[in-house]
Design brief:
Elements lengths: L7 H12 L6 E4 L5 H8 L4 E5 L3 H11 L4 H4 L1 E5 L14 E7 L7 H7 E10 L16 H6 L3 E10 L8 E9 L2
Amino acid sequence: MGNLKVSSLVRRFGAKVAGATQGKPILDVACGSGRNAFFLSSLGATVTCMDNELTRLREYLAQNASVGSERADRLVPHQIDLVSERWPFDYGSAGGIINVHFTLPSLFPVFARSLIPNGYLLLETIPGCGLNYLDLPKKGALKKALESNFAFEMYQEKPVGPIELKAVTVKLVAGRRV
């Protein structure tokens, strides 16, 4: 994966997320090229890589299957349109969930149901560059949407765009309440 940089949040908290899975897979929601999934697999986690387009991920996996890459063996592609298709994971079937640069609050209830107690949700919104502030949440909105099911270990908001819009970027790490 060469030049694709792992999210600093995933790098910082990846070992904690992987260590709390109780042997269940981590779901990489909207995984893109798999940059964060590869990192988590290097920590020994099995990662289900979910996205509507998996071409680059599958090419990497095919290339590395021929050399017997142990990391690639722990990545499971799952093609899905997260906006329109039904969530495919059952209650308590995920040991962790990472969701970087794709925030869809309608998925939060299924994240909570799918995640094991004390499993981690790691979420990072898109950055606040250009006109991204138009697609970012309002101050406090994500915290309010998640706080009944999750205990925050780290929650960081950064204001972006015109002050009157109250748009923020968010980085959070939270454990699923028991």
